[in-house]
């Protein structure tokens, strides 16, 4: 029987778990004994257009190397921010890609990424059908923002949520040592969806009630109510800690940092927010004249393998395995998904959905999971989040620091 050959790519922003999905795909391809070559695109679809790829089957043919890859953060294959054009606008791009597929006898194509990456899967799958190509195109979800439609949650989110909750707890311990009026504002990633910011509530323990206030982009943000909320909390405690999504908007739908001179956009036209915490810091100081500090977690919440969720990494590996099984069954134009069976004990199933119903859409927090005051989350949201951060990951260390997979192939000379 003719053997299969596949391409694997990674795209978008890095996470703790995306290499676990990559490892899951490689592992399943080798285990099946049905693949001659498992190729990896270097820097995603853009790298493939430049004929940059590597044979992963040769590099990860032993369990030790694969285990190290599973426990390495960011993206072993590198990434890109490339919006694949429509075929009608740029047929040459598709002809180049499919010529490469034909030369290498590609039968399966796996792309690990977020919303825009699923758009790439949808476009390539549609083009393949139009030319009667038998290649199976499968999307594997990835994003710390947890904003992909069609899946209960996304690989990478649980570990980022665990980092946010842990950081919030450590900030609370740091702030508790002084007996003076103070406000600490923690700005957390989330352009339009507040899942990560909501995860800050997981920091609450028997001796810590922070964050005292949580503001999410799913509901309008009022600066006056924000100040009134702080005033109320000051009545019973001196030290206030606030979690705020970078993408909160006012009643007119305008981003709080929209007027910032530092506002930029990425390759897809998305606003790169920077300064929401600083805007609020200035506002609070002017109103209360107390000690105010804003902290922006920024990229630190994306690749913190030292505080990764074991559940997240195991699920990410398994969804990579499931992707291979799905393509070998002949499915194409789909994204792998998690379907939650129950919370206690926590259980999920691995399935898939039409990528056209997922690409370019956003899954936001249901408004009913936000409290009536719009400054905290409900128990339902807490119960949804808590299973995703469970378990710790054993990291290998060398000379006192983590020992991750070698990514020297990503260096540009």
From TrEMBL:
<comment type="similarity">
    <text>Belongs to the phosphofructokinase type A (PFKA) family. PPi-dependent PFK group II subfamily. Clade 'B2' sub-subfamily.</text>
</comment>
<feature type="binding site">
    <location>
        <position position="115"/>
    </location>
    <ligand>
        <name>Mg(2+)</name>
    </ligand>
</feature>
<comment type="pathway">
    <text>Carbohydrate degradation; glycolysis; D-glyceraldehyde 3-phosphate and glycerone phosphate from D-glucose: step 3/4.</text>
</comment>
<keyword id="KW-0324">Glycolysis</keyword>
<dbReference type="InterPro" id="IPR035966">
    <property type="entry name" value="PKF_sf"/>
</dbReference>
<feature type="binding site">
    <location>
        <position position="13"/>
    </location>
    <ligand>
        <name>diphosphate</name>
    </ligand>
</feature>
<comment type="function">
    <text>Catalyzes the phosphorylation of D-fructose 6-phosphate, the first committing step of glycolysis. Uses inorganic phosphate (PPi) as phosphoryl donor instead of ATP like common ATP-dependent phosphofructokinases (ATP-PFKs), which renders the reaction reversible, and can thus function both in glycolysis and gluconeogenesis. Consistently, PPi-PFK can replace the enzymes of both the forward (ATP-PFK) and reverse (fructose-bisphosphatase (FBPase)) reactions.</text>
</comment>
<feature type="site" description="Important for catalytic activity and substrate specificity; stabilizes the transition state when the phosphoryl donor is PPi; prevents ATP from binding by mimicking the alpha-phosphate group of ATP">
    <location>
        <position position="116"/>
    </location>
</feature>
<keyword id="KW-0460">Magnesium</keyword>
<dbReference type="InterPro" id="IPR000023">
    <property type="entry name" value="Phosphofructokinase_dom"/>
</dbReference>
<feature type="active site" description="Proton acceptor">
    <location>
        <position position="145"/>
    </location>
</feature>
<keyword id="KW-0479">Metal-binding</keyword>
<dbReference type="Pfam" id="PF00365">
    <property type="entry name" value="PFK"/>
</dbReference>
<keyword id="KW-0963">Cytoplasm</keyword>
<keyword id="KW-0808">Transferase</keyword>
<keyword id="KW-0418">Kinase</keyword>
<comment type="subunit">
    <text>Homodimer.</text>
</comment>
<dbReference type="InterPro" id="IPR011404">
    <property type="entry name" value="PPi-PFK"/>
</dbReference>
<dbReference type="InterPro" id="IPR050929">
    <property type="entry name" value="PFKA"/>
</dbReference>
<feature type="binding site">
    <location>
        <begin position="143"/>
        <end position="145"/>
    </location>
    <ligand>
        <name>substrate</name>
    </ligand>
</feature>
<feature type="binding site">
    <location>
        <begin position="189"/>
        <end position="191"/>
    </location>
    <ligand>
        <name>substrate</name>
    </ligand>
</feature>
<dbReference type="InterPro" id="IPR022953">
    <property type="entry name" value="ATP_PFK"/>
</dbReference>
<protein>
    <recommendedName>
        <fullName>Pyrophosphate--fructose 6-phosphate 1-phosphotransferase</fullName>
        <ecNumber>2.7.1.90</ecNumber>
    </recommendedName>
</protein>
<feature type="binding site">
    <location>
        <position position="246"/>
    </location>
    <ligand>
        <name>substrate</name>
    </ligand>
</feature>
<feature type="domain" description="Phosphofructokinase">
    <location>
        <begin position="7"/>
        <end position="302"/>
    </location>
</feature>
<feature type="site" description="Important for catalytic activity; stabilizes the transition state when the phosphoryl donor is PPi">
    <location>
        <position position="142"/>
    </location>
</feature>
């Amino acid at each position: 029987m003719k053997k299969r050959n596949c391409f694997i790519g990674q795209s978008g922003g890095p996470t703790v778990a995306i290499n676990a999905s990559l490892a899951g795909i490689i592992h399943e391809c080798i285990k099946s004994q049905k693949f001659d070559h498992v190729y990896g695109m270097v820097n995603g679809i853009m790298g493939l257009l430049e004929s940059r790829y590597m044979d992963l089957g040769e590099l990860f043919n032993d369990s030790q190397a694969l285990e190290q890859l599973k426990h390495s953060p960011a993206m072993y294959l590198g990434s890109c921010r490339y919006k694949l054009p429509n075929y009608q606008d740029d047929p040459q791009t598709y002809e180049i890609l499919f010529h490469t597929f034909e030369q290498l006898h590609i039968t399966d194509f796996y792309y690990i990424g977020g919303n825009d990456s699923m758009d790439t899967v949808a476009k390539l799958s549609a083009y393949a059908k139009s030319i009667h190509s038998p290649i199976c195109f499968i999307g594997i979800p990835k994003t710390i923002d947890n904003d992909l439609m069609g899946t209960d949650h996304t690989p990478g989110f649980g570990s980022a949520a665990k980092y946010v909750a842990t950081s919030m707890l450590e900030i609370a311990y740091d702030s508790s040592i002084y007996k003076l009026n103070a406000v600490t504002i923690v700005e957390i990633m989330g352009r339009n969806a507040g899942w990560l910011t909501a995860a800050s509530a997981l920091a609450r323990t028997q001796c810590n009630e922070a964050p005292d206030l949580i503001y999410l982009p799913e509901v309008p943000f009022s600066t006056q109510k924000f100040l009134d909320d702080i005033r109320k909390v000051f009545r019973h405690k001196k030290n206030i800690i606030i979690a705020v999504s970078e993408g909160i908007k006012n009643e007119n739908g305008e981003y709080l940092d929209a007027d910032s001179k530092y506002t930029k956009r990425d390759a897809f036209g998305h606003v790169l927010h920077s300064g929401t915490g600083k805007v609020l810091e200035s506002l609070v100081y002017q109103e209360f004249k107390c000690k105010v500090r804003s902290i922006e977690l920024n990229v630190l919440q994306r690749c913190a393998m030292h505080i990764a969720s074991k559940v997240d990494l195991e699920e990410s590996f398994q969804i990579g395995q499931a992707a291979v099984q799905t393509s070998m069954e002949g499915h194409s134009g789909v994204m792998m998904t998690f379907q939650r069976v129950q919370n206690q004990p926590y259980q999920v199933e691995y399935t898939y959905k039409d990528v056209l119903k997922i690409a370019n859409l956003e899954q936001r927090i249901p408004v009913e999971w936000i409290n009536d005051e719009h400054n905290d989350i409900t128990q339902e949201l807490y119960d949804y989040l808590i299973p995703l951060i469970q378990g710790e990951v054993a990291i290998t260390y060398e000379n006192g620091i983590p020992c991750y997979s070698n990514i020297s192939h990503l260096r540009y000379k």
